[in-house]
């Protein structure tokens, strides 16, 4: 009889590898203490991870007092890496990192926002993917996971971009377009890899949740359009993320017609493109890109410069009302604002507090704080890396 079923062994391999990734050098005894596994089990599991090329022994540390010297374990120098590919309204970026999150290479290019032309964007994206893959190959590593993050909703089978208002896309099979152009992606899939396509707000919300904690987190992100997600945690199901199209909540009755067909969506009154146009920053956005223009917008709002400051004052109640509708539905512990709104979260928090429904002066639900993202522009990248690592830890020998 085997001592452990394959599932238990896989789980325990993930536990041990996870400790090696998190630690700054862990000895077998440390791992046994931290995981509750026996020292014999840890020794056997570590041997398997060393054989698989994932873990290696590093320094031997002399004991502080009595006892034997301890051999530290670290992620193997040639262990496979994770490739995160990101497409936003300005840039195509490929970032290769180790399983412990160390960045190995980053290739980024502005794609020039050719509206309604997915093939032109896929050309640029495939270029950065193949360039990053060449850098990885030169280090002797192979790619264990490919995750393509888009600033748009995704769905369907096979998974595709459903619509991208920033790029004027309808349904686009982005993985298919990439596959036809990228030798690295084709090689990865021919070797049995399974490239994934995920919306940025889902993975960014996971990273924010990991950073701030709590059971339920509501995330609203404003950078090109407005997106969002809800992260739920419970002991039975673990952590789950629900996509939430917060930009298309119709918050203004009979408001302006939105590209989605509804009237009065949040993006029509608080979307970055709208705010920049009203603040006379549309030309800057066209010339330098949205990121630069939104930085200028935030700086002007913080300095009280008109018209940006007044435009923002007008948008804040609409954002607060949108958050309120969702907060009364899911009762979050915390609300995190990402994108350019992160720097202006205190304004939203102040208004959010004043509009809470109260009965006998008491709010009908605990009022969650609205805080700015602490992760900044890297939230989606960090979340995608975290997600990839969790997937790989669920079956370390399959890496
Ligand atoms: Zn809409």
Report what the structure shows.
This protein has helices at residues 6-22, 28-35, 39-51, 118-138, 174-179, 183-190, 200-212, 266-270, 272-278, 282-288, 290-303, 308-330, 345-354, 379-393, and strands at 26-27, 55-61, 70-75, 81-87, 91-97, 103-110, 143-150, 154-155, 160-161, 196-199, 216-222, 226-234, 238-243, 334-339, 358-359, 362-363, 370-372. α11 crosses α12. The model has no long low-confidence stretch (mean pLDDT 91). It is built from 14 helices and 17 strands. The protein is globular, with a radius of gyration of 24 Å. A 5-stranded mixed sheet has the order 6-5-4-7-10, sandwiched between helices. Strands 13-12-11-14-17 form a 5-stranded mixed sheet, with helices on both faces. It has a 3-stranded antiparallel sheet with strand order 1-3-2. The chain is α/β, with parallel strands linked by helices and 399 residues long. Helix content is 42%, strand content 22%. It has 3 domains: 6-75, Orthogonal Bundle (Arc Repressor Mutant, subunit A), CATH 1.10.10; 81-194, Nucleotidyltransferase, domain 5; 202-375, Nucleotidyltransferase, domain 5 (2-Layer Sandwich), CATH 3.30.420.40. 41% of the residues are buried. Bound molecules: zinc ion (ZN). Residues 248, 258, 260, 262, 265, 267 line the site of zinc ion.
């Amino acid at each position: 009889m085997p001592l452990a079923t394959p599932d238990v062994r896989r789980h325990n391999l993930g536990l041990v590898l996870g400790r090696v990734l998190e630690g700054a050098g862990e000895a077998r005894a440390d791992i046994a203490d931290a995981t509750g596994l026996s020292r014999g089990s840890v020794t056997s599991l570590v041997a398997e991870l060393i054989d698989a090329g994932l873990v290696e022994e590093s320094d031997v540390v002399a004991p502080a007092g009595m006892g034997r010297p301890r051999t530290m374990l670290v992620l193997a120098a040639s262990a496979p890496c994770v490739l995160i590919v990101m497409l936003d309204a300005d840039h195509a970026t490929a970032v290769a990192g180790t399983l412990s999150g160390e960045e190995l290479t980053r290739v980024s290019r502005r794609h020039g926002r050719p509206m309604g032309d997915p093939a032109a964007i896929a050309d640029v994206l495939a270029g950065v993917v193949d360039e990053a893959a060449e850098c990885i190959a030169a280090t002797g590593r192979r790619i264990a996971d490919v995750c393509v993050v888009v600033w748009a909703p995704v769905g369907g089978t096979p998974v595709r971009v459903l619509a991208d208002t920033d790029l004027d896309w309808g349904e686009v099979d982005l993985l298919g377009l990439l596959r036809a152009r990228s030798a690295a992606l084709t090689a990865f899939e021919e070797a049995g890899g399974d490239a994934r396509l995920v919306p940025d707000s889902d993975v960014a919300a996971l990273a924010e949740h990991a950073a701030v904690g709590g059971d339920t987190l509501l995330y609203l992100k404003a950078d090109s359009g407005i997106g969002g997600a809800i992260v739920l945690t419970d002991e039975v199901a673990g952590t789950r993320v629900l996509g939430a199209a917060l930009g298309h909540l119709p918050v203004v009755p009979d408001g302006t017609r939105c590209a989605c067909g509804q009237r009065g969506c949040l993006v029509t009154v608080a979307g970055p493109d709208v705010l920049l146009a009203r603040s006379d920053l549309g030309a800057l956005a066209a010339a330098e890109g949205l990121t630069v223009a939104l930085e200028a917008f935030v700086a002007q709002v913080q300095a009280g410069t008109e018209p940006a400051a007044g435009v923002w004052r007008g948008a804040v109640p609409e954002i607060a009302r949108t958050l309120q509708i969702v907060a009364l539905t899911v009762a979050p512990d915390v609300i995190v604002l990402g994108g350019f709104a992160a720097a202006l979260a205190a304004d939203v928090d102040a208004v959010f507090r004043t509009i809470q429904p109260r009965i006998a002066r008491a709010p009908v639900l605990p009022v969650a704080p609205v805080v700015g993202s602490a992760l900044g522009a890297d939230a989606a990248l960090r979340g995608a890396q975290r997600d990839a690592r969790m997937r790989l830890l669920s079956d370390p020998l399959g890496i």
